[in-house]
Amino acid sequence: MVLQGDGESLASLQIKVTSKIAAVDLQSLPKHSQAPVVVTPSGRHLDSGAAICRYVAAISHTNVAYSSTDSLVMSRVDSWIDFARLLEAPLASWLQPGSAQAQQYSQAAAKARVTHDLTVLQHHLTMATFLVGDSMTIADSQLATTLAGPLMHLIGRKQQEQLPSVIRWFTTCTRHPALAPFVGGFTMCQDSIGWKAPVRSQHPSTPPKQQRPADLSTQQDQEMQPVDEDGDVDSPTASANGPAVQPVSAEKAQKASKAEAKQAAGASDGDQAGASASEDPDKKAKKDAKAAEKAAKKAKAAAKEAERKAQKDAGPSEKKKKAKDEADAKKAQDAAELKELIDRARATPKGQKKDITSNMFKGYCPPAVEAAWYDWWEQSGFFKPELDSDKPPFVIVIPPPNVTGSLHLGHALTNAIQDTVVRWRRMSGYNVLWLPGTDHAGIATQTVVEKDLAKRKGLTRHDLGREAFLEQVFAWVKTYGGKIFGQMRRMGISVDWDRLAFTMDDNLVAAVQEAFVRLFQEGLIYRENRLVNWCCTLHTAVSDIEVDHLEVKGRTLVSVPGYTQQVEVGVLTSFAYPLEDGSGEIVVATTRPETMLGDTAVAVHPDDDRYRHMHGKFVVHPMDGRKVPIIQDAELVDMSFGTGAVKITPAHDPNDYATGKRHNLQCINILDDDGRMNANGGQFAGQPRFTVRKTVVEWLDSKGLLRGTQDNEMSVPFCSRSKDIIEPVLKPQWWVNCQGMAQDGIKAAQHGTLGIIPSDFKATWYRWLENIRDWCVSRQLWWGHRIPAYYISLEGENAGAAGTQYEQMDRWVVAKEVQQAQAEAQKRFPGKKVTLSQDEDVLDTWFSSGLWPFSTMGWPNQTPDLAQFYPGALLETGHDILFFWVARMVMMGIKLTGKVPFKQVYLHSMVRDAHGRKMSKSLGNVIDPLHVIEGISLEDLHDTLTTGNLSPAEVQKATAGQKEDFPDGIEECGTDALRFALVAYTSQGRDINLDIKRVVAYRHWCNKLWNAIKFAMINLGDVFVPAGDLHNPQQLPFGCQWILSRLTAAVDSTIKALHEYQFQSATQAVYSFWQYELCDVFIELIKPVMSGGDAATQQATRETLCTCLDVGLRLLHPFMPFVTEELWQRLPHPPSNGNPSTTPPPSQQPIPSANGSHAVPSENGGEPSQSSIMMQPYPEPQQAWHNPEAEEHMQLVDNAVRAVRKLRNDYGLQRQRPQLFIQCKDRARGEVLSKLAGEIGSLTSCAEVTVQQAGVAAPAGCAPAVIDDSIIVHLLLAGILDPQKEIDKLQKEKVKVEERWNALKKKMATADYAGKTPAKIKDVDMENLGKAQKEQQSLEQQLHDMKQLLH
Description:
By secondary structure, the protein is α+β, with helices and mostly antiparallel strands. Helices cover about 45% and strands about 15% of the residues.
């Protein structure tokens, strides 16, 4: 390999050193060009110093240059090489003031940049011998050769004292055989202050041999990244992975100097010497000065034009292209590194612990962090309870999702809340069992399988027969039933998967049969012909929870399955019934005119004088001429509604059915199971119900009986599964008498054996149970728990068939086995030949779900699980199923086991979108939790709409909604951020308006946690082992005392909030500690200590920092399990557990029962384990850490800091470090402020903080801020800002604000504003007016302060 160019330049020296380290032969040839060029054996020319060094390292036969072949390590080496390269330009302004590089920097800006970067380097090297790893790499050689010059000439002794780690590292590097010949054996700068440009005897570009290390040669323009015009630099910060090197803004080069102007003026003088010999000297001097000024302007203009032309011709395009290429290359490199990181994490063998020995990645990456931990937790048995444990049990059963369902935000919320509680209780010393499972979901599962069967084979279930169809359903469940389990694992839920239950498991089937038989034998289950919610599409009765209600204001067209045209609802039709005696008519009104075919009475109010003469009379039904009585009913009839007369159809309306019961009316069913008119429909028989709705009105009109139609506001019931309109239909079904069991549920809540949280729902609980109706448990399905009831048919008789209106209710026997039923039937009909037919129906899904808390424990058998883990401690679910599921579990639990199945019920709220709207596919606001965890593009979001059953119009509407809410798709947030957001949103009694932007914010917060641990790992070092002894916090530095006091307060607040299920308060306590106290204050306070404090103070600070991180991560773990595990595993831990300061014993906080009694964990429970954070004890408040005085003093500091930061913000101070003066009238507070002046300076970025006694004036040129009646802070702006420029800027801003204020006033003064402007807009205008007024006042104050600086 051949090196051409100036062999004495810095770039050439770096290349030579690299070649020596890499053991690569290098031949140097002289060349007139100063920039080095390397010619490779293949003839390729490399002309970038950094590129040449990387090439040399790459062709080396050893790994010495990079110290490793690991791509992450090599990436960190490259980052430090870039760090060294970016230092060259600012250093050139001092070491080579005439070079091209030097022109890009003012010396002041260059000094600031170099000083900052040396501070970054000092922080990194505090706990490291070399830049990357344990041996020298080309990064060390590159940076050492770059810093040799400044350390010889610029960095004075005072600054050297602040850089002990840098000096130690540099000395180590210079002793290396590869560097010693080039940079060894020279003396550090001896000047006290330093920063004086070296005196040169030659042209700056030709360095003397003895000063070789001090000189810097120019490199190509593409390597230059200068600061901006004010000297501001995008400062890189060090990390465990290397410096975050950022490009800096370009500064325009000087156009023409005064020297050039004088030179031009001198040339002019020479040309005119003879002509001006006789001129007056004074005049000549003035003339010459004028000519010189003119020439200077001309030169300056020419320079500007030349620069503009050069930029237009080539400069900007080349620079932009190079910048883009570099950005693209960096982006590609980052993506490759990230992919490798994720792939490496995911390559962890299933169930094994993830290897985290490599250095931390530069930022938080959810896929890499979340990989492998869950499988390891599960494989290690961390989710399982201990058998025969003397720990108090904490048992919770998961609300079983549909077996073929998929995760939605309701599940995600449930999972997040439950897992938070479960992990907290497990860490607090309880023997936790969280039991998972799924529900067979009768209607939902059968429907999806029937659709699949029809689509694939064109068959119905009836074509297959019951047994063959059920085989198809079980096969479907086996294939698709586990999907949701994988999604639940993604949420990190710590359930005992070995106890996974399914409502169709054999033991749960046996429990359902046992419960049905027992309740039947006690007379609580009975058979009766009553109204049910009938779905004509599904051919089954459905529960109230499966009925949706559409509210309409009037005439509305809706789509109904099976009808090609839309159906009209929201219309009130009036028609007349003629009186039997011919004396007149009575007019009734209905929204369902087709039901008049089943009318069996007309009701009026007994006190209605309009109809008093009709009492006891009859009307004639116009279809078949039958007599229909006019009855009096004060309970049903509202005299003020309509005509005051009401048609009664007992077989098709719940209210009419109750009225028919009171008056013993005939029930005429006019519909078959398909929703067509049966034989009772007369001439309309066989017609679909909504066709009859039209034809019957036309028929009434033809009879002269129609009296008109009008719009009517009403609620239309729809089946949530099929979207068909529900029909109340009379059916013989099995019913549960709930009256007595409901009273047991009421007493449980009243006596405190059942706690309902939030307590507001107690009123709902009492209201529902006090007004409970009997429960229909029959479903006309094949998939589910077939009812263990058998219908008896006797040989030779023609009895009514089961399930029809003619069945004989006393012909049913109930038994778990058919043999038992046969014996019971023979006993009932001795000597007769009986035939048994099992009921074709299955039980309502809620029946088996009502047994869930104890059937999953082995009931009705007396199993060890039932004895140890029943009843449970908590049930967590949504408030929308308080009655449908919770109440039924309580009622059946008390009835069948004698115990309330759980001590407490926590009811979470509904999840809505950011606008407060209910989640709806047609709105496009339904969010799949996995899309939040993994991220999704807008295009892919749109694609999800086409996989459902939305109409084209609905798809269009949903697409627009998605585009509005997620214009850029959904950013990858990770599981922890989603969990934390959902739990943080959870406030008792309020719905959750989930804004995805907030989840994204928590994902960024995870990055802050990541960086906090990175900072700790840099400053703790590889050899640090925490002693775990913080029993005497009063001996610690002030900042350590304060943060420990805040930590124990956060622990106390979090635990109290968790006990009260105040999840919003719990997350706020944890978040505030990490964000506002640990990261924003404590870490900032200790940075100067870690870089320059004494050894004892540093050690105490390290102990405190490690304790805060350990306790803080354990405190946060239940909310964010993945990132806390990843970070906790990286922390150093004490050699032994058990110290109360760092590893508190198991929580003595009890599980509160509903009535306030407590069960305390055993003393020997919760043995700590170092293997996982989830097996560590949950933190407890430490009284020894509580320090009110430190908190009071820090509050004083915080008040000052806030005031100063506001001043800095008001005056646009960013990197400037002004002086701060604090006037304090109170002597005691002044002493505190004086003592903590260093802390104030660190938190406000002030160069010096001076606390003044009362009466001592602050220097002129200060901006004041009043904290209270005894403290005023003064920020010295003189010398920092140009007052006149600031005044001009503020005046312009003031004009803009005044124009905005005047425009608002003018708008609000218009004549139509008060009457026509919506209230919401008025509120916004008033708010904006107030803001503008406050801005005016603030600008006035700032102008006043700036004008003061002029005097």
